[in-house]
Design brief:
The complex is a heterodimer of chains A (about 120) and B (about 110).
Chain A: E1 5-7, E2 10-13, E3 19-24, E4 31-37, E5 44-50, E6 53-56, E7 65-68, E8 75-79, E9 88-95, E10 106-107, E11 111-115
Parallel strand pairs in A: 2-11
Antiparallel strand pairs in A: 1-3, 3-8, 4-5, 4-9, 5-6, 7-8, 9-10, 9-11
Chain B: E1 4-6, E2 11-14, E3 19-25, E4 30-38, E5 44-49, E6 55-57, E7 60-65, E8 70-75, E9 84-92, E10 100-101, E11 105-110
Parallel strand pairs in B: 2-11
Antiparallel strand pairs in B: 1-3, 3-8, 4-5, 4-9, 6-7, 7-8, 9-10, 9-11
């Protein structure tokens, strides 16, 4: 079956612009996660959705970052007034349930964001 | 101090070698433990879960020591295809399963 998909695969923007990154999770997965990975580092947690609601947004770095999942499926990560430091690969993952047990997260291929 | 710490490497080993990766975590309330594999410019993929009793999957053996807050991964008889970055991952207790990743350890297996 289809895995997690993310669009666009690459996004180049200018400092100060607004960007939207989209994630399509695996069908039927109720939990959706966003992570950010900078070069040479492991992924860093940003936000977690259980259904339509953001259950944990403690990883969002500041109020320029916002994410939604209005129908409990597709999610959009929105970044306002982009800065060069926002350049990274943004990874989305989904799992059947959001629990701390062995509930495997499946990752999408990521969106590589470059802010010039 | 990072929540999950790994030696970033790189580890350069010949085919057939045995290589061990270590990882420490700071949150004693961590609940679940994993090793993920990430190929260059690809997404992370689950390699194996890690249990206190230790677990083995073919050439791969993972071990967890809760008292020392230490996780290990042993790869025997290394193959060229094992070349990748290995990420040590923990999940905090009762936080919706979010993953906390280490920096990753790069492995390069040479002919």
């Amino acid at each position: 079956g289809a895995g997690v998909s993310q669009t666009p695969s690459n996004k180049v923007t200018e400092k100060g612009k607004y960007v939207e990154l989209r994630c399509d999770p695996i069908s039927g997965h109720t939990a959706l996660y966003w992570y950010r990975q900078s070069l040479g580092q492991g992924p860093e947690f940003l936000i977690y959705f259980q259904g339509t609601g953001a259950a944990d947004d403690s990883g969002l770095p500041n109020d320029r970052f916002f994410a939604v999942r209005p129908e409990g499926s597709v999610s959009t990560l929105k970044i306002q007034r982009t800065e060069r430091g926002d350049s990274a690969v943004y990874l989305c993952a989904s799992s059947l349930m959001g629990t701390s047990g062995n509930n495997e997260q499946f990752f999408g291929p990521g969106t590589r964001l470059t802010v010039l | 101090r990072k929540e999950v710490e790994q030696d970033p490497g790189p580890f350069n080993v010949p085919e057939g070698a045995t290589v061990a990766f270590n990882c420490t975590y700071s949150n004693s309330a961590s609940q679940s433990f994993f090793w993920y594999r990430q190929d260059c410019r690809k997404e992370p993929k689950l390699l194996m879960s890690v249990y206190s009793s230790g677990n083995e999957d073919g050439r791969f053996t993972a071990q967890l020591n809760r008292a020392s807050q230490y996780i290990s991964l042993l790869i025997r008889d290394s193959k060229l295809s094992d070349s990748a970055t290995y990420l040590c991952v923990v999940t905090p207790y009762n936080q919706g399963g979010k993953l906390i990743f280490g920096q990753g350890t790069e492995l390069s297996v040479k002919p």
